[in-house]
UniProtKB/TrEMBL annotation:
Pfam families: TetR_C_34 (PF17929), TetR_N (PF00440). It comes from the Bacteria. Residues 18-37 bind DNA. This is TetR family transcriptional regulator. PANTHER family: HTH-TYPE TRANSCRIPTIONAL REGULATOR RUTR (PTHR30055), POSSIBLE TRANSCRIPTIONAL REGULATORY PROTEIN (PTHR30055:SF178). It comes from Kibdelosporangium aridum. GO terms for molecular function: DNA-binding transcription factor activity; transcription cis-regulatory region binding. Residues 1-55 form the HTH tetR-type domain.
Amino acid sequence: MLDAARNLALDKGVRAVTMTDIAAEIGVHKSAVLRYFETREAVFLELLTEGWAEWVDACVPAVEAAGSDPVEVARAIAETLSKRPLFCDLLAHAPMNLERGVSVEAVREFKLTSFGHIDRFVQAVTTALPTLTKDEGWSLISAVNALASTLWQITHPTAAVAELYRTDPQIGHAVGDFGPNLREQTETFILGLLARRGIGARP
């Protein structure tokens, strides 16, 4: 079921996938899916939980390899996110939809599991950039989460809106490439944290 939901979401976006779609993809009635997942939001929240683990597993060694260069740390964060389109799409839906369509206990379990993965990310970043505090590491992941989720939606509009951007020069500049934008804005945030301590762009 999760594989079916994952494939459908990658094909047409999280927003467009229904429980009926998931059931049809695996050749069962919708009621069969509901035995395992109460709502579509529960399905995608499970995929988002997996996404946090997979991204952090990739991001931590990339950050470690970046050394103490904040620009390279930002690059590592952005590039590992750019390789995970479904995760970026899901990040936007978590607070708007997914957490609102499941039980409070399910939200609590999701948060605690995700926070465990985020702690590993924060440890890696504050080890690479030791002048950053743990609180600043959490501020960074909050910013990265907000940036990735928002930029993904902006840079992946519907086909009709994408055509509008392509054909109307007055608004075409409003959409850009996800990866470069995320890298630049993540770098800016990290350098801003360091600048508050009087530290330059590069050590």
